[in-house]
Specification:
Shape of chain A: globular
Largest interface: A-B, 27 and 27 residues
Structural class of chain A: mainly alpha
Number of helices of chain A: 9
Oligomer: homodimer
Strand content of chain A: under 5%
Order of helices and strands of chain A: HEHHEEHHHHHH
Chain lengths: 235, 235
DNA sequence: AGTGGAATTTGTGTCGACAAATAAAATACA
DNA sequence: TGTATTTTATTTGTCGACACAAATTCCACT
């Protein structure tokens, strides 16, 4: 419950309700504020946001289309589970998208793209220095998304965005802090190499760096998971 | 108007309305029965299907999420345009997905998967023999989708499905008949090679055949497009 | 006390109606 | 006659209410 965390009150603009609910719910799901399996109740949401069920439902339809919630007919709808059994398919797709988008960025980026990418990199650096883990996850995501946008392929961009979202849920589960070594500094260095390769339009180097970065991330997540699982067993 | 092509009449089951509208509209869009740019009117659809606007809207939200329709706020919603300017990004993604899914199928397929794939291949062969172009498009799509399913990666599968859908629109524009040479026979041979490579679990061969197949398809489509464009100019 | 079945509760699926926003038509004015 | 402004019309966005289905509770009966 945590009281009403929503501004709710004011009269919002006409078509804004759906997007607002969609984005807030999406963030709550990805940040695990709504953990996998939790029930999403239309009526409850309706009077939490101070609107009717219709716009709520449309937001839910959209979330369902993206696989973030599961709707069982005539009965409740719940936040979708994280599919640990097929995690390797996630890693596989994530790696490929890292590589492809970085390659394309090296090929097609403009000067403005590069500025944006560097700006996000600096933002990430700053969040690292501040030790702000939530900010680190957010700026890291933005950095890679901007690279993908510079690649100018909406098909890759949409799949990559979806993968980054799912990754956000995973990262939330295990937090940066649980990773070993000086992760932020390492990622920062890899990001720098990525930017260098893109700026030089060196496709081969971009591919190689992206692959290494993906491997690095995946290894960290897997380590965190196995460590976590071991603890589960030992209890 | 073409009269009422919908069964509409009977009392349908409780949660079935949305899916029904979604699927029919989706098919009509991909078959160009609803050409790009045509206006989609909620009220018209509502009494065509004999239901209220609410389920119609939910179907439209889903279609919009998949990029098949564009909704301008407070005003009409229309079937999305085919983006000829960025067609190369489509081809790029399509080629990659052909390769990746075929590779994974070679790696992970089961005996049942192979049976299914072969069944679809036979169906395609049959449609070719019958000269049924619509059936050819449908069975060809099913063949490749089944291969992707055998690869067991839902991320690739969903992107690939989306790409195959968009491809369906393109093929409808230019039809098989406008392609040169003995296309069906050629594709049939390539499909055979694909199945052989998958069955042999030869990942390298699967990749190579998939890539060749993709190249072949893309070349045909491009030829059809340029030919079409030339005609436009000459008129 | 345990089990089968009827009533109640809870929450979704659908409806018809209204309000807001935009486009089109009509009107006034120079 | 051409342009600015008001009026009308059309279509979307939202609402509150009701119908239906599943889950739960309650109750009778053994």
């Amino acid at each position: 419950m945590t009281a009403s965390e929503t501004p709710a009150g004011q009269d919002r603009k006409r078509g804004s309700g759906v997007r607002m609910v969609y984005e807030l719910l999406r963030d709550q799901i990805l940040d695990l504020e709504l953990p996998p399996g939790s029930i999403v109740d239309e009526i409850q949401l309706a009077d939490r946001f101070g609107m009717s069920r219709t716009p709520i439902r449309e937001a839910l339809v959209r979330l369902a289309a993206e696989g973030l919630i599961d709707t069982l007919p005539n009965r409740s709808t719940m936040v979708s589970q994280i599919d640990f059994a097929n995690l390797h398919t996630f890693f596989d797709a994530l790696t490929l998208m890292y590589r492809v988008t970085t390659r394309l960025a090296a090929e097609y980026h403009t000067a403005e793209d590069l500025d944006r990418i560097r700006a996000h990199q600096r933002a990430y650096e700053e969040r690292c220095a501040a030790g702000d883990e939530i900010g680190m996850i957010a700026t890291n995501r933005q950095f890679h998304q901007t690279i993908a946008e510079a690649g100018r392929n909406r098909y890759y961009l949409s799949l990559f965005s979806r993968l980054l979202d799912e990754g956000r849920r995973l990262l939330r589960l295990y937090y940066y802090s649980s990773f070993e070594g000086d992760m932020p500094a390492l990622w920062l260095r890899e990001h720098e190499q990525m930017v260098t390769a893109i700026a030089a339009r060196d496709i081969g180097a971009a591919d190689q760096v992206a692959r290494a970065h993906a491997d690095q991330i995946i290894r960290q997540i897997q380590k965190a998971i196995t460590r976590d699982r071991r603890q589960d067993i030992s209890i």
